[in-house]
Amino acid sequence: xxxxxxxxxxxxxxxxxxxxxxxxxxxxxxxxxxxxxxxxxxxxxxxxxxxxxxxxxxxxxxxxxxxxxxxxxxxxxxxxxxxxxxxxxxxxxxxxxxxxxxxxxxxxxxxxxxxxxxxxxxxxxxxxxxxxxxxxxxxxxxxxxxxxxxxxxxxxxxxxxxxxxxxxxxxxxxxxxxxxxxxxxxxxxxxxxxxxxxxxxxxxxxxxxxxxxxxxxxxxxxxxxxxxxxxxxxxxxxxxxxxxxxxxxxxxxxxxxxxxxxxxxxxxxxxxxxxxxxxxxxxxxxxxxxxxxxxxxxxxxx
Length: 302
Fold this sequence. Notes:
It comes from Malonomonas rubra DSM 5091. This is HAMP domain-containing protein. Keywords: Membrane, Transmembrane, Transmembrane helix. The chain is an alpha+beta fold. Among the domains are: 22-175, PAS domain (Beta-Lactamase), CATH 3.30.450.20; 234-276. Helices cover 63% and strands 11% of the residues. A five-stranded antiparallel beta sheet has the order 2-1-5-4-3. The two termini are 97 Å apart.
């Protein structure tokens, strides 16, 4: 009975608490992942904006060597996976990987996700775009290098003044650090959920044992003692953890004791009355056997 009661008491509570904790962990993980991804995107945007400003200044000075050094140095950073500057036609002009520049690679060959943005008829050609979780394992950003009045009037400028975009800068950082952090966070949340599961089972079992099972066992023991004839005042002291159930049980035992005591008192009185009647009867018979001679009548002898 107790095993069935334990299962019926612990299992629903364990499922409810563990389910709530798991749901909370999943929700928390989703929020943390979103925040960390946004932080990584912000880091990429800031780095790309810094490179874009430096590249624009080098272009204004018509200093291709400085521009090449900027791209090369940024490409050597640990977390930078790629950096490229395309012309408006989508051909690589500067890259952190010199082989790409020497081969004359295009965006369609290397960055398919940005080739569509470089098309002249693309509506959002002048806006910044991001690529997260792509096949390259990079968090990438594509920033258009816009044509400015002071740029179109420079001596080195060979684009038309009405051309809005001069080229594109694409920069990507590795997503492995982010994925590693999220994996670590996920594993710790799993461990935490397992700990909560064991804590819930142990805590509920301990509370049920202390507040329910032990009082029931004590009440069962008291019931056995009462069956054997132990009086209510001689039963173990009540702890009142079962509330009215224990009070009603002891009241029943007390009523039994009172009824038993009343029956014994009544039986003793009846026995005393019966004994008195017997003595009176015997005394009467004895008096009848010893009547006076006058009452006995004349005898045979004169």
